[in-house]
Amino acid sequence: MRGRWIGLGALGLVVVIALGGAWLFRDRLALIGMRRAYALALATDPLAGLPDGLHVGLCGSGSPMPDPTRAGPCVAVVAGRDLFVVDSGSGSTRNLLLMNLPPASVAAAFITHYHSDHIADLGELMLQHWAGGAARAPLPIHGPPGLESVLNGFEAAYALDRGYRIAHHGPAVVPPSGFGGDPHVFSAGDGPDVLVLEKPDLKVWAFPVAHAPVEGAVGYRFEYKGRSVVVSGDTGPSERLVRASRNVDLLVHEGLAPNLVAMQESVAAQAGRGNYAHIFKDILTYHSPPETVAREARAAGAKAVLFYHVIPPLPVRALEGPFLGRAKTIFGGPMRVGHDGDFASLPAGSSEIRWSNRLQLLKF
């Protein structure tokens, strides 16, 4: 017994010494960790290690409502070696950098509609694409009618900054020709879905969704080497979305929980915040309850569902159950409430979906 206590005492002493040594050298250890994080963040190929296939990351899983854990709506899609972004909500460009999906590598952006929460970071995305990679051509941006007006506005707002950066860094680092965005406008109406981008092994389709009074709101379907992803954008119940999501591997869909928003409306009314109460009531009419999404996903034959544009904010995971309600039971397949950094890999030639969180990559 005495020998056991001596052994435990010796072990404790070793632990104390080790912790003390770590404390004494904490600055050096922190610098080593920082250098390793920079080496990863500035790697020549940030997509190294990803299997060939489709990959989907949430660079923003939130909504206009304040949530310290969620940026505004943004979905990153990697198809083979090409990185794309769907929408650019507030804070999403910073998340792209933290997820080691650098904006300089974005091949094109796709906008679902022009509500402010979906375009708030568009100026920052275009700036980072330009300055982060010495881009010689503007970022290609696809969207419904109105896109040119939106891009002109952002470019005007950033015009002074453009001049400062060229004067400071020089045209070799920030080529004047690479500033801003290159609009690719399309209309998705009552006709067939619109093929907005086609490359070897890749097709991107746009289809109309139900988000009145917003005109021209769309979702997107990505198809690459037999794998598929649909991003809904903002929508209420939509037969066109069901058709576009037929047999999709992963449906990335917005979600609003009426029971939780009703709580917000009630509290706002009791607090005399009539404007907020009115808004909370209004938003019920052009978003989708999780149970509705579950029914549509089941009707479409979708393999899995990932919620983003989460309304209202869910500050603790214990609220995910009340948010989903009966949705998991209705759908019957894999269903997740998304968080910033969530990353789904869909390797070509399989039906597998591998889940991780890419915001953890640069932590040390």
Structure description:
With 364 residues, the chain is of the alpha/beta class. The protein folds into two domains: 1-42; 49-360, Metallo-beta-lactamase, Chain A (4-Layer Sandwich), CATH 3.60.15. The chain is built from 13 helices and 15 strands. An eight-stranded mixed β-sheet has the order 6-5-4-3-2-1-14-15. It has a seven-stranded mixed β-sheet with strand order 7-8-9-10-11-12-13. The longest helix is centred in the first third of the chain and has 23 residues, at 2-24.
Attribute tags:
364 residues, Metallo-beta-lactamase, Chain A, 2 domains, 7-stranded mixed beta sheet, 13 helices, 15 strands, globular
- Assigned CATH superfamily of the largest domain: Ribonuclease Z/Hydroxyacylglutathione hydrolase-like
Q: Output the CATH class name of the largest domain.
A: Alpha Beta
Order of helices and strands: HHEEEHEHHEHHEEEEEHEHHHEHHEEE
What is the helix tally? 13
Topology, number of strands: 15
Radius of gyration in whole Å, from Cα?
23 Å
> According to CATH, what is the topology of the largest domain?
Metallo-beta-lactamase, Chain A
Share of helix among residues? 25-40%
Q: Count the domains.
A: 2
Proper CATH architecture of the largest domain: 4-Layer Sandwich
Strands in their spatial order, largest beta sheet: 6-5-4-3-2-1-14-15
Pairing-aware structural class of the strands and helices?
alpha/beta
Largest sheet: 8 strands, mixed
> Which of globular, elongated, flat, extended, rod-shaped describes the shape?
globular
Overall average pLDDT: 92
Q: Determine the N-to-C terminus distance.
A: 41 Å
Strand percentage, roughly?
Answer: 15-25%
Which regions have little confidence, pLDDT < 50, spanning 5+ residues? none
